[in-house]
Protein backbone atom coordinates (compact mmCIF):
# COMPACT_ATOMS: atom_id res chain seq x y z
CA UNK A 1 0.00 0.00 0.00
CA UNK A 2 1.56 3.28 -1.09
CA UNK A 3 0.95 6.22 1.25
CA UNK A 4 -0.42 9.51 -0.08
CA UNK A 5 2.23 12.02 -1.18
CA UNK A 6 4.54 13.45 1.49
CA UNK A 7 3.70 16.89 3.01
CA UNK A 8 -0.01 15.98 2.99
CA UNK A 9 -2.26 15.04 5.89
CA UNK A 10 -1.39 17.78 8.40
CA UNK A 11 -3.48 16.71 11.44
CA UNK A 12 -4.78 20.21 12.22
CA UNK A 13 -8.23 21.74 12.30
CA UNK A 14 -7.49 24.99 10.48
CA UNK A 15 -10.35 26.57 12.44
CA UNK A 16 -11.01 29.46 10.09
CA UNK A 17 -13.70 30.80 12.44
CA UNK A 18 -11.12 31.26 15.23
CA UNK A 19 -8.46 33.04 13.20
CA UNK A 20 -9.66 36.60 13.83
CA UNK A 21 -9.19 36.12 17.57
CA UNK A 22 -6.35 33.59 17.45
CA UNK A 23 -3.93 35.76 19.44
CA UNK A 24 -5.83 34.85 22.60
CA UNK A 25 -4.37 31.33 22.38
CA UNK A 26 -0.85 32.77 22.73
CA UNK A 27 -1.46 33.59 26.38
CA UNK A 28 -3.21 30.29 27.06
CA UNK A 29 -1.74 27.12 28.57
CA UNK A 30 -1.87 24.90 25.52
CA UNK A 31 0.09 26.56 22.74
CA UNK A 32 2.96 25.41 20.59
CA UNK A 33 4.89 27.86 18.43
CA UNK A 34 7.19 26.55 15.70
CA UNK A 35 10.00 29.03 15.06
CA UNK A 36 11.01 29.79 11.47
CA UNK A 37 14.22 31.61 10.63
CA UNK A 38 15.57 32.60 7.20
CA UNK A 39 13.86 29.71 5.44
CA UNK A 40 14.73 27.17 8.12
CA UNK A 41 13.03 25.22 10.88
CA UNK A 42 14.62 24.36 14.24
CA UNK A 43 15.33 20.70 15.01
CA UNK A 44 16.36 19.16 18.31
CA UNK A 45 19.24 16.73 18.71
CA UNK A 46 16.95 13.83 17.73
CA UNK A 47 15.87 15.59 14.54
CA UNK A 48 12.34 16.47 15.69
CA UNK A 49 10.92 19.99 15.25
CA UNK A 50 11.44 22.33 18.21
CA UNK A 51 8.55 24.41 19.50
CA UNK A 52 8.13 27.14 22.11
CA UNK A 53 5.32 28.18 24.44
CA UNK A 54 5.75 31.93 24.18
CA UNK A 55 6.04 34.13 21.11
CA UNK A 56 9.04 36.43 20.68
CA UNK A 57 7.13 39.02 18.65
CA UNK A 58 3.61 39.89 17.59
CA UNK A 59 3.39 38.15 14.24
CA UNK A 60 2.96 34.46 15.05
CA UNK A 61 0.70 32.87 12.45
CA UNK A 62 -2.11 30.62 13.64
CA UNK A 63 -1.92 27.23 11.92
CA UNK A 64 -4.82 25.52 13.67
CA UNK A 65 -5.86 23.23 16.48
CA UNK A 66 -4.81 19.68 17.31
CA UNK A 67 -7.33 18.76 19.99
CA UNK A 68 -7.05 21.60 22.53
CA UNK A 69 -3.55 22.58 21.45
CA UNK A 70 -3.18 25.70 19.32
CA UNK A 71 -0.30 25.55 16.84
CA UNK A 72 1.46 28.64 15.49
CA UNK A 73 4.53 29.41 13.43
CA UNK A 74 6.59 32.52 14.06
CA UNK A 75 9.06 34.13 11.67
CA UNK A 76 12.27 35.10 13.50
CA UNK A 77 14.21 35.91 10.34
CA UNK A 78 15.02 39.43 11.61
CA UNK A 79 17.22 37.99 14.37
CA UNK A 80 20.95 37.81 13.60
CA UNK A 81 22.69 34.46 13.28
CA UNK A 82 24.41 33.44 16.50
CA UNK A 83 27.48 32.72 14.45
CA UNK A 84 27.74 34.45 11.10
CA UNK A 85 29.73 31.56 9.69
CA UNK A 86 27.35 28.73 10.55
CA UNK A 87 23.72 29.30 9.66
CA UNK A 88 22.87 25.79 10.89
CA UNK A 89 23.11 27.33 14.38
CA UNK A 90 20.49 29.92 13.46
CA UNK A 91 19.73 32.70 15.97
CA UNK A 92 20.48 30.17 18.75
CA UNK A 93 19.96 31.44 22.27
CA UNK A 94 18.80 34.78 20.88
CA UNK A 95 15.59 32.94 20.08
CA UNK A 96 15.68 30.96 23.32
CA UNK A 97 15.38 27.63 21.57
CA UNK A 98 17.27 24.62 22.94
CA UNK A 99 20.98 24.92 22.41
CA UNK A 100 21.04 21.56 20.64
CA UNK A 101 18.79 22.84 17.86
CA UNK A 102 20.01 22.98 14.31
CA UNK A 103 18.25 25.20 11.79
CA UNK A 104 17.67 23.42 8.52
CA UNK A 105 15.70 24.06 5.33
CA UNK A 106 12.73 21.69 5.05
CA UNK A 107 13.99 20.73 1.61
CA UNK A 108 16.98 19.18 3.38
CA UNK A 109 15.16 17.16 6.04
CA UNK A 110 11.48 16.86 5.04
CA UNK A 111 11.85 13.20 4.07
CA UNK A 112 13.14 12.36 7.59
CA UNK A 113 9.86 13.47 9.18
CA UNK A 114 6.61 11.52 9.48
CA UNK A 115 4.22 12.58 6.73
CA UNK A 116 1.85 14.46 9.08
CA UNK A 117 4.67 16.39 10.78
CA UNK A 118 6.13 17.26 7.39
CA UNK A 119 2.64 18.42 6.39
CA UNK A 120 2.46 20.89 9.29
CA UNK A 121 5.93 22.26 8.53
CA UNK A 122 5.12 22.63 4.84
CA UNK A 123 1.87 24.42 5.64
CA UNK A 124 3.62 26.91 7.92
CA UNK A 125 6.55 27.36 5.57
CA UNK A 126 4.22 28.28 2.73
CA UNK A 127 2.54 30.92 4.90
CA UNK A 128 5.89 32.32 6.06
CA UNK A 129 7.06 32.85 2.49
CA UNK A 130 3.77 34.43 1.53
CA UNK A 131 4.08 36.98 4.35
CA UNK A 132 7.70 37.74 3.49
CA UNK A 133 6.73 38.53 -0.09
CA UNK A 134 3.51 40.48 0.48
CA UNK A 135 4.58 43.20 2.88
CA UNK A 136 3.40 45.78 0.33
CA UNK A 137 0.16 46.03 -1.58
CA UNK A 138 0.43 44.72 -5.14
CA UNK A 139 -2.23 47.18 -6.23
CA UNK A 140 -1.04 50.52 -4.76
CA UNK A 141 2.35 49.83 -3.16
CA UNK A 142 1.38 50.84 0.40
CA UNK A 143 2.45 48.66 3.34
CA UNK A 144 0.12 45.84 4.31
CA UNK A 145 -0.64 44.57 7.81
CA UNK A 146 -1.50 41.14 9.16
CA UNK A 147 -5.11 40.13 9.77
CA UNK A 148 -7.02 36.98 10.65
CA UNK A 149 -4.25 35.29 12.60
CA UNK A 150 -1.91 35.53 9.61
CA UNK A 151 -4.33 34.31 6.92
CA UNK A 152 -4.91 37.71 5.38
CA UNK A 153 -2.99 40.95 4.83
CA UNK A 154 -4.74 44.26 4.50
CA UNK A 155 -3.55 47.29 2.55
CA UNK A 156 -3.10 50.22 4.96
CA UNK A 157 -3.94 52.84 2.31
CA UNK A 158 -7.56 53.76 3.11
CA UNK A 159 -8.25 54.69 -0.52
CA UNK A 160 -7.22 51.20 -1.64
CA UNK A 161 -7.85 48.90 1.35
CA UNK A 162 -7.30 45.81 -0.79
CA UNK A 163 -7.35 42.54 1.14
CA UNK A 164 -4.68 40.01 0.18
CA UNK A 165 -4.98 36.29 0.81
CA UNK A 166 -2.34 33.54 0.94
CA UNK A 167 -1.84 32.08 -2.48
CA UNK A 168 -0.34 28.98 -3.96
CA UNK A 169 0.85 28.56 -7.54
CA UNK A 170 -0.54 25.56 -9.45
CA UNK A 171 2.07 23.46 -11.23
CA UNK A 172 1.44 20.27 -13.19
CA UNK A 173 3.71 17.24 -12.95
CA UNK A 174 3.14 14.24 -15.17
CA UNK A 175 4.18 10.67 -15.61
CA UNK A 176 4.11 10.05 -19.35
CA UNK A 177 4.06 6.37 -20.29
CA UNK A 178 4.50 4.39 -23.48
CA UNK A 179 3.54 0.85 -22.58
CA UNK A 180 6.07 -0.28 -19.97
CA UNK A 181 8.29 2.76 -20.41
CA UNK A 182 8.11 6.15 -18.71
CA UNK A 183 9.49 9.49 -19.85
CA UNK A 184 11.99 10.97 -17.38
CA UNK A 185 14.21 14.02 -17.66
CA UNK A 186 16.77 15.97 -15.68
CA UNK A 187 17.89 19.54 -15.22
CA UNK A 188 21.59 20.31 -15.39
CA UNK A 189 21.90 21.49 -11.78
CA UNK A 190 20.52 18.29 -10.24
CA UNK A 191 22.86 15.71 -8.65
CA UNK A 192 24.50 13.40 -11.20
CA UNK A 193 22.10 10.73 -12.45
CA UNK A 194 18.99 12.28 -10.86
CA UNK A 195 15.86 11.93 -13.01
CA UNK A 196 12.25 13.04 -12.59
CA UNK A 197 8.93 13.18 -14.32
CA UNK A 198 8.41 16.42 -16.27
CA UNK A 199 6.70 19.41 -14.65
CA UNK A 200 5.80 23.04 -15.24
CA UNK A 201 3.64 25.93 -14.11
CA UNK A 202 0.07 26.37 -15.22
CA UNK A 203 -0.37 29.55 -17.27
CA UNK A 204 -3.35 31.90 -17.37
CA UNK A 205 -5.97 30.80 -19.86
CA UNK A 206 -5.27 27.07 -19.98
CA UNK A 207 -6.72 24.00 -18.33
CA UNK A 208 -4.61 21.62 -16.27
CA UNK A 209 -4.82 19.05 -19.06
CA UNK A 210 -3.66 21.64 -21.60
CA UNK A 211 -0.77 22.61 -19.32
CA UNK A 212 0.31 18.95 -19.11
CA UNK A 213 0.26 18.54 -22.90
CA UNK A 214 2.01 21.86 -23.52
CA UNK A 215 4.81 21.25 -21.02
CA UNK A 216 5.60 17.76 -22.33
CA UNK A 217 5.60 19.03 -25.91
CA UNK A 218 7.77 22.05 -25.05
CA UNK A 219 10.31 20.21 -22.92
CA UNK A 220 10.59 16.85 -24.68
CA UNK A 221 8.81 17.22 -28.03
CA UNK A 222 6.45 14.36 -27.11
CA UNK A 223 2.71 14.53 -27.85
CA UNK A 224 0.43 13.07 -25.14
CA UNK A 225 -3.21 12.00 -24.82
CA UNK A 226 -5.46 10.61 -22.08
CA UNK A 227 -4.32 13.03 -19.35
CA UNK A 228 -5.70 11.72 -16.04
CA UNK A 229 -5.47 13.43 -12.63
CA UNK A 230 -3.87 11.26 -9.90
CA UNK A 231 -3.28 13.43 -6.83
CA UNK A 232 -1.71 16.60 -5.49
CA UNK A 233 0.96 17.76 -3.06
CA UNK A 234 1.75 21.06 -1.34
CA UNK A 235 5.29 22.01 -2.39
CA UNK A 236 6.19 25.20 -0.50
CA UNK A 237 9.59 25.67 -2.16
CA UNK A 238 8.48 28.37 -2.14
CA UNK A 239 4.79 28.37 -3.06
CA UNK A 240 3.63 25.61 -5.39
CA UNK A 241 0.79 23.15 -5.37
CA UNK A 242 1.88 20.18 -7.45
CA UNK A 243 -0.97 18.60 -9.42
CA UNK A 244 -0.01 15.09 -10.48
CA UNK A 245 -1.15 13.37 -13.69
CA UNK A 246 -0.59 10.29 -15.76
CA UNK A 247 -0.58 10.72 -19.53
CA UNK A 248 -0.11 8.39 -22.49
CA UNK A 249 2.44 9.10 -25.19
CA UNK A 250 1.01 9.62 -28.67
CA UNK A 251 4.51 10.07 -30.13
CA UNK A 252 7.80 8.79 -28.68
CA UNK A 253 10.62 10.65 -30.45
CA UNK A 254 12.31 12.97 -27.97
CA UNK A 255 13.43 16.48 -28.92
CA UNK A 256 14.48 18.26 -25.76
CA UNK A 257 14.45 21.98 -25.09
CA UNK A 258 17.93 22.57 -23.67
CA UNK A 259 16.77 25.69 -21.86
CA UNK A 260 14.55 23.43 -19.74
CA UNK A 261 16.21 20.03 -19.65
CA UNK A 262 19.71 18.62 -19.88
CA UNK A 263 18.37 15.30 -21.06
CA UNK A 264 15.21 13.19 -21.30
CA UNK A 265 14.85 9.48 -21.91
CA UNK A 266 12.47 6.53 -21.89
CA UNK A 267 13.03 4.17 -18.95
CA UNK A 268 11.59 0.65 -18.80
CA UNK A 269 9.79 -0.24 -15.58
CA UNK A 270 12.27 -3.08 -14.90
CA UNK A 271 15.16 -0.60 -15.02
CA UNK A 272 13.59 1.53 -12.29
CA UNK A 273 14.20 -1.25 -9.73
CA UNK A 274 17.93 -0.81 -10.20
CA UNK A 275 17.92 2.97 -9.80
CA UNK A 276 19.67 4.65 -6.86
CA UNK A 277 18.35 7.22 -4.42
CA UNK A 278 18.66 11.00 -4.52
CA UNK A 279 21.73 11.88 -2.44
CA UNK A 280 23.39 8.45 -2.67
CA UNK A 281 26.60 10.09 -3.88
CA UNK A 282 26.96 7.97 -7.02
CA UNK A 283 26.66 8.87 -10.70
CA UNK A 284 24.21 6.08 -11.49
CA UNK A 285 20.60 6.83 -12.52
CA UNK A 286 18.43 7.85 -9.57
CA UNK A 287 14.76 7.91 -8.70
CA UNK A 288 13.28 11.32 -7.78
CA UNK A 289 13.59 12.41 -4.13
CA UNK A 290 11.57 10.19 -1.82
CA UNK A 291 9.40 13.08 -0.57
CA UNK A 292 8.38 14.24 -4.06
CA UNK A 293 5.12 13.62 -5.90
CA UNK A 294 7.27 12.69 -8.89
CA UNK A 295 8.41 9.66 -6.89
CA UNK A 296 4.83 8.95 -5.83
CA UNK A 297 3.62 9.06 -9.44
CA UNK A 298 6.33 6.59 -10.43
CA UNK A 299 5.70 4.21 -7.49
CA UNK A 300 1.94 4.16 -8.01
CA UNK A 301 2.44 3.53 -11.73
CA UNK A 302 5.09 0.87 -11.20
CA UNK A 303 2.92 -1.09 -8.71
CA UNK A 304 -0.46 -0.53 -10.37
ZN1 LIG B 1 -3.29 49.03 -1.65
Can you give a write-up of this model?
- With 304 residues, the chain is of the alpha+beta class.
- 16% of the residues lie in helices and 28% in strands.
- The chain contains 5 helices and 14 strands.
- It has helices at 106-109, 115-132, 208-220, 269-272, 293-302; strands at 31-37, 40-43, 61-66, 69-75, 102-105, 144-147, 152-155, 163-164, 169-178, 181-186, 198-201, 224-235, 240-249, 263-268.
- The strands form 3 sheets. Strands 9, 10, 11, 12, 13 and 14 form a 6-stranded mixed β-sheet that branches. A 5-stranded mixed β-sheet has the order 3-4-1-2-5.
- A hairpin with a 7-residue loop joins β7 and β8 (163-164).
- The mean pLDDT is 93.
- The structure holds zinc ion.
- The site of zinc ion has 8 residues, from loops.
- Zinc ion is lined by residues 137, 139-140, 142, 155, 157, 160, 162.
Describe, in short, the structure shown.
The protein has five helices and 14 strands. It starts with 30 loop residues before the first strand and ends with a helix. The site of zinc ion has 8 residues, from loops.
How many helices in DSSP terms? 5
What is the averaged pLDDT score?
93
Unique bound compounds: zinc ion
Amino-to-carboxy terminus distance: 10 Å
Number of strands: 14
Biggest sheet statistics: 6 strands, mixed
Q: From the structure provided, what is the oligomeric state, counting identical versus distinct chains?
A: single chain
Amino acid sequence: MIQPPHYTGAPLDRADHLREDAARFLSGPDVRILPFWQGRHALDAAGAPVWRRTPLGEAAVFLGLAGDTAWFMEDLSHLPAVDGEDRDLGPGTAAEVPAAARWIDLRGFGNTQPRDVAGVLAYGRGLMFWHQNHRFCGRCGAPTEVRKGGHQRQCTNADCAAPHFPRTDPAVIMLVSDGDRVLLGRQAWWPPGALSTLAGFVEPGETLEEAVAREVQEEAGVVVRDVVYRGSQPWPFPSSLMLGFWATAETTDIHIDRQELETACWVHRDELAGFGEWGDGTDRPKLPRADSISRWLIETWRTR
